[in-house]
Amino acid sequence: MFEKVNAGHPDKMADRLAGAVVDLVYERAGGLTKANPRVACEVMAGHGRVDVQIETSLGRLDLRADDVDPLIHRLFGERVVGNVLIAPQDPHLSDILSPLWQGGGYKAGVLRRAKRQSQAEMRLAA
Known about the structure:
Radius of gyration: 19 Å
Shape: extended
CATH architecture of the largest domain: 2-Layer Sandwich
CATH class of the largest domain: Alpha Beta
Order of helices and strands: HEEHEHH
């Protein structure tokens, strides 16, 4: 079983908006020292509303809701109500995830990280 929706379906439009937000973050980071920013974007759209939650390593001064509003209105029209939340990325999460995607994939990275953490805890206990 598979799902097929047309190009104007809110799910498809939400995916396009999330991609545009990621592109915007990378564009903004290009002129900054953070050439490889981290960003996560979730979009929920429907019933005249578009809610966007962005978690990024860029500072709040580098990315604002006013930067995202034009993207919302370009894709969904001027009549929708947009709500944008921008939060800083949890630095502990990015520290954990960075090495996980290198060498051996996600699962291998999780195991390596758990092993290092266990070894460090054993040294502290000794």
